[in-house]
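Journal club prep, notes for RB
We'll compare a predicted complex against what the paper describes. Inputs for the MU-OXO-diiron case:
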Amino acid sequence: MERTVKNNVSWVGKVDWELRSFHGFELSTFRGTTYNSYLIREGKNVLVDTVWNPYAKEFIDNLKKSIDLNKIDYIVANHGETDHSGSLAALIKRIPGVPVFCTENALDSLKGQFHKNWNFHPVKTGDRLPVGNGKELVFLEMTMLHWPDSMASYLTGDNILFSNDAFGQHLASIELWADLADQCALYEEAIKYYANILQPYNAIMQNKLKEIAAMGLPMEMIAPSHGLIWRTDPMQIVNLYAAWAEAYRENQVTLIYDTMWKGTQALAHAISQGVKAADPSVRVLVCNAGNTDKNDIITEVFRSKAVAVGSPTVNNGILSTMAAILTLIEEMKFKGKKAAVFGCYGWSGESPRILHQWMKKAGFDVMDEGIRYKWHPDDAGLTAAFEYGRKFAGFAGQTNAVR
Ligand code: FEO
């Protein structure tokens, strides 16, 4: 159902209440999502982005209620990923020859996925497309935020930035507006989105935010391609991104472990108590990687100034759940964070060394070789783990939280 965004700009997207995973099963979306498509009806009719292909028919049927498809003058494809480009094939079949404005890099991604030679018009940062009534779309390449083809488009006059993935949230809602959402849910989904999707590109994000500021475009609304539109103080999300893009860390220590017979779990709990005893001001969180959502863990790592990881030794290695979360942690390219390692073992006992090497490779400043315990920790073992937690709190305290 069409919703008015501002003046002659409407939302014509899809609310996906049921979606629980994204990028296959790589990203959890516990609150669903939206695929935001926008229709600008000025002298020219412009469609900005589409929706994921499973909803192409529904999208086009609804779009036909808003506009005669043949009257769409231009399509802007801000991004080639199929959650936004997925309905292009079905739509362009009905209006062949319609000009598609996208980045040069999108020629690669769109042709590579759809194998069509549509009427592409590659654009660069600063290029302008008059849309009538004195208004223009100004294009802004968002290279690697988060694909090479990513782009944002800015509508002059109404001063709306169609930011695509940036500034979005996987949050299903028919409210349309960020200020009407549950603010806790909005923040949780916005930071989870950043931590799991944009974190690896922090340096690019910092430069892009400076570039956008230098363009001097007044921002009355930021309309992302997922979730809710920022209309009340839209710079609030830009300011959050500026903080998140700079080695973000709160006064939080997170312990992540998995366990077979609860020995490593006992070490984790004792270490957590030691951290808290040494620094009552620090927020301490304990996550069992075996039963905690991996993207929620990444969000907590993102928020932490220090992370302790633990695994028992199994088959001369570590548990596969820990290997999976360490793979993700390494991919996120975190900076400015401390780490410690721990684990129980029965005979060979390699797990702390493996965890140490992995966390170092992932860019963490690892405190030492870690603590390990043969078989199940007794009182002396738990006391040693508690003291290790105290030591870790001191090490973590060498890193200032930015918030
Ligand atoms: Fe929402 Fe990168 O697609």
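Talking point for the session: The chain has twelve helices and 22 strands.
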